[in-house]
Amino acid sequence: MPEFRNVVVTVNEEPREAEIEPRLLLVHFLREVCGLTGTHFGCDTTSCGCCTVLFDGVPVKSCTVLGVQADGHEIITVEGLGSPSELSPVQEGFHEEHGLQCGFCTPGMMMTATAFLDENPNPTEEEIRWALSGNNCRCTGYVNIVKAVKWAAKKMATSGVSARGAAPIR
Amino acid sequence: MAAPNRSGTLTAAKEVRLYPSRFHYEAPRTIDEACQMMAYYRDDAKVLSGGMSLIPLMKLRFASPGTIVDINNIEGLDYIEEAGGYLRIGALARNRAIVRSDLVRSRHPLMSSACPTISDPVVRNRGTLVGNCCHSDPQGDWVSVMMCLGGEIVARSVDGERVIPIEQFTTGPFSNSLQSHEIAVEARIPGSTNYGEYHKIERKVGDFATVAVGVALNIAGGSVSHCGIALTGVAPSNLKCYDAERAVMGGTLNEGTIEAAARAASAAASPRSDHRGSEEYKRTMVEVFVRRSLRAAAGIRAA
Ligand SMILES: Cc1cc2nc3c(=O)[nH]c(=O)nc-3n(C[C@H](O)[C@H](O)[C@H](O)COP(=O)(O)OP(=O)(O)OC[C@H]3O[C@@H](n4cnc5c(N)ncnc54)[C@H](O)[C@@H]3O)c2cc1C
Ligand code: FES
Ligand code: FES
User: How far is B288 from chain A (nearest CA, A)?
Assistant: First the structure.
């Protein structure tokens, strides 16, 4: 008999309760239990970063975290950034600077960039490249992704909006 | 598959993708509770810390533990502190925290130099130094760093605590001297060193070392009072270079002692030619890195 565990996970500020097997990976919990398919899996081997989500505010590769480990914790996925009517600075930056082509890596890129900019709102190009080095893109050569993050930093500085799109907590 | 439901209970998603084999999951809240669980499950159980090595192995089914004892809910295990003459790194201190720690940098610059080369920033957000040592990957970087610094692992069990020097801790590829009911709770590193550098050649960010060389020194009054030199990726396991260390210990760093150390380290290595590079290349790079580090330490401008 498989073992099931009851978990309560706050996903994009909403509590989600589910009975899951301990071996269910967080990425599949998000995609298939919560129906949030913005989180992608590209490699399944902890390399590409497409599955990156924020775990208590910290970027993690959700293909390498168990769903049960998120019990009692807060997860933010790409669906938790901005809103359709008002994109977050990072989302807008990717749009403005043509930071995506196929878009497969984009959710992970944006989650890593969001957490990074919240900590370092005025980064150098080298710092951006370093911060994104755990996320692989097969299309863009990174140049426009780096530009997009710079664009977002500028937007944050002029608008006072946090990287996630919400007003900053003071 | 369960339909998404915004407010109510989501029932079991039985058809979702599952990679690891089934296991029993325990999430103890205290270290004593964790020790009792390990005493109960013994060989059947694996400790889960950062999970950045264990979960990939489970997904590939290279590891299929019957029970996972997840220590991530134990409070107070994520410390980085100085006490009793040791820098103490708790089992849940993430590599992310080690990279950022001013205390670590001021006590052992080698650690701050090595940490950013270990995996990538997102993986470092969860991976731990203690878990890396326990994993005992022959290509792992933290064991070499611990070798340079005389580090020890503190193991806890229902029987009490014992301290294991790193050379006795790692016993071979993916094996260590922990007993099946023991949990590594801390890495501790004595004293401080005023010079340290980790040179690593990797093919891409987050890759294991083609060649890596760690050097840590304590230079007091112009004389070398501590020297640690260790290599990663160029021998069947992490290699502490005793001969190279002896070549510079107790004296001043000069061209003669530096050359002797560089050559001794290179001679100690037993690299294999592979897709990462030829044996000759790797051996040469060991020599170059030891020379470069020691020259920098001596304030001699690298040629
Ligand atoms: C993309 C990628 C790149 C990487 N690159 C590198 C690299 O360049 N260099 C490098 O050294 N490593 C690298 N790693 C490995 C990474 O650093 C791991 O985080 C580390 O080896 C394991 O630490 P962990 O805390 O994640 O341990 P886990 O994965 O949780 O555990 C690893 C093993 O140690 C045991 N264990 C863990 N903690 C304890 C404990 N407290 N007591 C007893 N047993 C324990 C587990 O049971 C398991 O067998 C990489 C990993 C990935 C995914
Ligand atoms: S799918 Fe998780 S890192 Fe690639
Ligand atoms: S846009 Fe295609 S993988 Fe990055």
Answer: 26
pTM: 0.95
**pLDDT value at residue A166:** 65
Q: Report the side by side order of strands in the sheet with B67-70.
A: B24-26, B67-70, B45-48
Max CA separation in chain A (angstroms): 57
- Ligand 3, atom 4, residue with closest C-alpha: A137
> From CA B290, how far away is CA B211, in angstroms rounded?
12
Say if ligand 2 is within 6 A of residue A47 CB. Answer: yes
The tens digit of pLDDT for each residue in B237-285 reads 999 999 999 999 999 999 999 999 999 999 999 999 999 999 999 999 9
Rounded Cα distance, B21 and A52, in Å: 23
Kindly report which listed range (A5-9, A97-101, A144-148, A161-165) carries the lowest average pLDDT score.
Answer: A161-165
A1 touches chain B (CB under 8 A): no
Beta pairing class for A5-11 and A14-20: antiparallel
- State how far the Cα of B118 lies from the Cα of B171, in Å rounded to an integer: 21
Q: Is the Cβ atom of A43 under 6 angstroms away from ligand 2?
A: yes
Judged by CB atoms within 8 Å, which residues 170-209 of B form the interface with A? 205-206
Ligand with minimal distance to A46 CA: 2
Cβ-Cβ pairs closer than 8 A, A with B, add up to 128
- For A59, the closest chain B residue by CA position comes to B122
Torsion of CA B38, B40, B41, B45, to 10 degrees: -10
Are B10 and A16 an interchain contact pair (Cβ–Cβ within 8 Å)? yes
Residue B78 · residue B93 · CB < 8 Å: yes
Q: Which residues pair with B136 in a beta bridge?
A: none
SS3 B141: helix
Sheet holding A58-61, edge to edge: A58-61, A52-55, A74-76, A5-11, A14-20, B9-10
